[in-house]
Amino acid sequence: MDATTTNRIMERKPKNIFTQGAIDPAFIAESIAKHSTKTDIGGHSIFLGQVRADVIDDKKVAAIEYTAYEELALEKMHIIREEIFSKYELTCMHVHHSLGKVAAGEICLFVFTSSAHRRAAIDACNEVVERIKTELPVWGKELFEDETHQWKVNR
Amino acid sequence: MDATTTNRIMERKPKNIFTQGAIDPAFIAESIAKHSTKTDIGGHSIFLGQVRADVIDDKKVAAIEYTAYEELALEKMHIIREEIFSKYELTCMHVHHSLGKVAAGEICLFVFTSSAHRRAAIDACNEVVERIKTELPVWGKELFEDETHQWKVNR
Amino acid sequence: MITVLFFGKLAEIAGAKAELQAVASTDELLEQLRLQYPALAAEKYIVAVDKKTITGNTSLTDHCTVALLPPFSGG
Amino acid sequence: MITVLFFGKLAEIAGAKAELQAVASTDELLEQLRLQYPALAAEKYIVAVDKKTITGNTSLTDHCTVALLPPFSGG
Which SUPFAM superfamilies does the UniProt entry name for this protein (chains C, D) (predicted)? Predict the structure, then answer.
């Protein structure tokens, strides 16, 4: 990234991606419906992360509690966004990540990309998900049903 | 595919994938919400096809009208489904395709795959979308605003 | 009697459905159709007999359904 | 004064936030923290100074914010 691009990024305020608690499927529907006015879009790609009730040593995960270094995460997400837009011909991109407690079966991550032709949306969505998992300072604490916990490790 | 597999497929009745008119975002939300009881799911991948208002020779596409050789399409989709399930570790897979008129900006295709770990859902979703476009006997007629039309060509 | 189904652009040329008597093979059937609907000659399509796509000439029996399928454009 | 932020499992060991006086570098800061919280020695983390991750020893000035970040596990 050259200095001009960096300056442009730093001038704009990073968009918030964090939401308290689980992401509601109704919110996802609203997001999709809003795109019906953008008639240059031909394909949407969506990834949803859902909290798994993993069983570890006979104890079942009841929820994950997310925390983040928010300012750093938003700055980092802003850079990822700019890089994705310069790499893929996207119409738009939306990212939402939960903070706080999300119960097993609920949605904790919502990545949504749109483009004229499907390939760009699909490839961009995949790349954003991978980068979110490896580059954003966010931590998941797996809360077991017996109120003990362990820290989540991303594969 | 061996004879036993083929027999098993042919015995079961193919699931309907066709729906009259556009796919409602509220229906997509319901589909997502239904999966909250399946707590072995860690990731969902969704592809949505949206009708583009392409401009061809100064005429704008107002809608696409879909027709299909339904019985053959459902049999073919059933085989695709079985092959995808034997190739990827999926928890579930849902496909919905519009028939009849779908206006520009509306959703005409909804592919939804879920798995414990994201890779399977994402890869399966991509493959299903590609196979739907090349293997299902479905035709789109692009209706222009001036009531002329042309037959859609998939790239 | 053989039922013939036309899809997509082909249905604009020949209608959605036709019924033909006494045709012994797909080659014979396609020849008859091209005579009746000359515009078919310019079109690309594959042929399915009883929902199985065929690649060469195929013999037809009574009650067969033959479908003419132009390039797919779903999704 | 230097502000130190701890995240994830590290916050369980050292609390979310600490304030230290008169530390000239990150090496010095980390040494002080390990003395105060011996459990930190067993943990993996990277260090960010004023929201920039660092790889080697970095000098600190007054009002710096240093963050200790264990492996990320979002999504």
Answer: MoaD/ThiS
